[in-house]
């Protein structure tokens, strides 16, 4: 199903400008960067990109602010995040508009992304009163052994287009609560939402009396991101994006003994066992595979189905795919918005051609849509392809709505297929058999950072730690104890005995 009417670029430009004005942000019009919308594929504004000298000054300012911020009591730091959360609530609709205009997300997902920002602010307010260390039993009498967590420094946040503001907030809210300051280099595809978030944080900082330079924004391409990668004043580089980007960033940060937190590509799979509730599975699979037009790092890309249920499930999925409304993401009936660029569409069509050449059978979708109405945009029907083997193309992440269906006979075989890819982000099993579910979650089961039962691979809550293994990079962000990556740990030994006793009974002097 395709909805044929798209808004005009001028209308989208006005909508973006109005949202930014309500937020209090202005567009630094200039050259070097362009804001565009994937809804029509056309440009909205020309923007001034950050110069290398301005990037240098921003890191210096954030470092200076860190020297004050690190000694501000953590619960007072939390006040900044409480105020930011309030401003995000107040402007949820404006921010969601910008997410839709720039990233092409449908309305409910754009609102959901802003909700994640609000939720992580709430989390960070609580966290600001819980940055606790442990006391450890000392082997020596009259000694106390403890650990203390201290702010780390400037955190460089590099983010991807597909979660243009939530990923920023996961990093920034936690880093600020931890006493760090942040310099953010967002995706070159999403400068407007970045300007809006930066403005709201600046407003919150002014209102609570926090240093303005606790947060700085750099606009530009990977060359500007590289400034953060190479600067020794940036203690932690938290980089979200493709594995290709992580391969470039990780070793460069390591070469200067900096810390990096990498959140890279996924190639997520779900196993569907014979006992699965197929009604629930179909809903979970279609959302995970086609939601956000297949452009989530946790998007479901491989379905590993027991042979006994494969034909039944595939028939139901094909029917559901045929009814997915593709089109204007502002239209409340649309479920699949545009891909970010025609390059992303080419990547999908190329993967489809490669897998079909290897014998893959296209079961549904895969056709470009709205090419006449918007030749520079990239609307496509989500595709479902049945394959007999996990070939190289299936083992790659194609960042588009392309779901491969494989079949299995034994759970061991399913898990071998599941884990037989270079990435390790998200995973799930649909089953009503508790033994199978527990096996999937065990050390012999899924090798991913996220492993779910009876729910799809996408749509994580902020309360848990988010991230994955292998080529996904190993980083963890957001909830649980992910905050520790943003702090440095000191181990303290305090001798209150009045005499010196050395550890391990060593005697000296
Ligand atoms: P991308 O790798 O093209 O760009 C991501 C960011 O990295 C951008 O800001 C870009 O300018 C910057 N960058 C690229 N090369 C760089 C370099 N050498 N030095 C410094 N900065 C550099 O990714 P994208 O197309 O924007 O996003 C899609 C990818 O991101 C997918 O692979 C997706 O799986 C991944 N992703 C992962 C997560 C996660 O949490 N694991 C979340 C969202 C997206």
UniProtKB/TrEMBL annotation:
Active site: 263
EC number: 1.2.1.3
Keywords tagged on the record: NAD, Oxidoreductase
Enzyme class of the recorded protein, top EC level: oxidoreductase
InterPro entries: Ald_DH/histidinol_DH, Ald_DH_C, Ald_DH_CS_GLU, Ald_DH_N, Aldehyde_DH_dom, ALDH7A1-like
Pfam families the record matches: Aldedh
SUPFAM superfamilies for the chain: ALDH-like (SSF53720)
Superkingdom classification of source: Bacteria
Residue ranges of every copy of the Aldehyde dehydrogenase domain listed in the record: 34-489
Family, as annotated: Belongs to the aldehyde dehydrogenase family.
Subunit structure: Homotetramer.
PANTHER family linked: ALPHA-AMINOADIPIC SEMIALDEHYDE DEHYDROGENASE
Protein name in the entry: aldehyde dehydrogenase (NAD(+))
